[in-house]
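As a warm-up, study this chain.
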Amino acid sequence: MDLGIAGKWALVCGASKGLGYGCAQALVREGVNVVINARNADALTAAATRLIADSAYPSSASGQNGIKPQVLAVAGDITTPEGRAAVFSVAAGPGRDFDIVITNAGGPPTGDFRDWDRDAWIKAVDANMLTPIELIKATVDGMAARGFGRIVSITSSAVKAPIDILGLSNGARSGLTGFVAGVSRSKIASRGVTINNLLPGKFDTDRLAATVTAAASKVGKTIDDVRATQQAQIPAGRYGTADEFGAICAFLCSVQAGYMTGQNVLADGGAYAGTF
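Now compare it with the structure written out below.
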């Protein structure tokens, strides 16, 4: 299916690896020009190289006039004004206004809430709530003026089913969820702009490896035992992959998803047992 977004420009944050990279890859394969951002310059450059060399461009989505999409890498801390300025400076070329924005940040540390001071909470809220809001504020009006925009915030399944050791993430990401619920239903909804949240469950990424290690330490089991136990509890019987997560993200950015806004799309292999 042609998603109708070839030739658009996208900003993908946290794109050097994991779910962010999966989203960037899926968009590039649809012919979308991407600006990828992450803090680690070496890892980001390597990611850009892989995206450019990707041989899986479908001919039907290879961009306008058969031209492969552009991939621009901007290393920096997107949670700072300087990092955001660097991203928007690179994206300031003719026709490079962002039509698609994927907000994504590494999750805050795991642990016991008793051990977190004010600085830990401020850092978590800044990265996982305030920075996405700043990116939305910087791009949404331009999208509305052009009549098309897609913003997808990668949050967490913990927004629906909180996890005790992820208290910083539970709190910060829930705040973003409430903000998106309101702004996505404002006047921009009638001007072709959608804002949705994509909630990953357990995907086989570095972030999952860290939480598995923490869980193994807490219960006194091996990492392999914890992984096996977790996967057995998922109805799909496995962890998710970055490729399939990226495909969901790309759909939310498509013209076909224009009637979906303000939604929390859960991708967790059926692990959340609730009806709503």
